[in-house]
Design a protein that fits this description.
This protein has 112 residues and is of the alpha+beta class. The chain has a single domain, classed as HIT family, subunit A (2-Layer Sandwich). The chain is 21% helix and 22% strand. A 5-stranded antiparallel β-sheet has the order 1-2-3-5-4, with helices on one face. The radius of gyration is 14 Å and the shape is globular. The termini are far apart. The mean pLDDT is 96. It binds adenosine monophosphate and zinc ion (ZN). The site of adenosine monophosphate has 12 residues, from loops. The site of zinc ion has 6 residues, from helix 1.
Length: 112
């Protein structure tokens, strides 16, 4: 956990463009955006992968969806965003602290 880049952002040890913060979660802009609007939401608790989400984490994981919508509205993509969570390196997970990608503002429809 000490080497976790998102824990360091949460602790203020690494800078990030924060878009929302409360006791449970943090939202910040992705450093390498893959869409016109691309931000991440993380639980402040270090959970390595989506598969590690426990019953005790259900409330905060649900909150991520609600806050995602609030931030997306502020970013002007209230009705045009996708939600992505990668689970495991083979599925593209690079940072092993659970995070929700919000990809917004893409004009064209795509397959998954
Ligand atoms: P994933 O591949 O699902 O693990 O996504 C990790 C995401 O974290 C990528 O989209 C990166 O661009 C993003 N990322 C990595 N380091 C930082 C950072 N310091 N600040 C903001 N986003 C970051
Ligand atoms: Zn972490």
């Amino acid at each position: 956990m000490n080497d976790c880049i998102f824990c360091k952002i949460i602790a203020g040890e690494i800078p990030a463009e924060k878009l929302y913060e409360d006791d449970d979660i943090l939202a910040f802009r992705d450093i390498n955006p893959q869409a016109p609007v691309h931000f991440l939401l993380v639980p402040k608790k270090h959970i390595p992968m989506p598969k590690d989400i426990a019953v005790a984490d259900e409330a905060v994981m649900g909150k991520l969806f609600r806050i995602a919508a609030e931030v997306a509205k502020k970013e002007g993509v209230e009705e045009n965003y996708r939600v992505v969570l990668n689970n495991g390196a083979k599925s593209g997970q690079e940072v092993f602290h659970v995070h929700m990608h919000i990809l917004g503002g893409r004009p064209e429809p795509r397959p998954l």
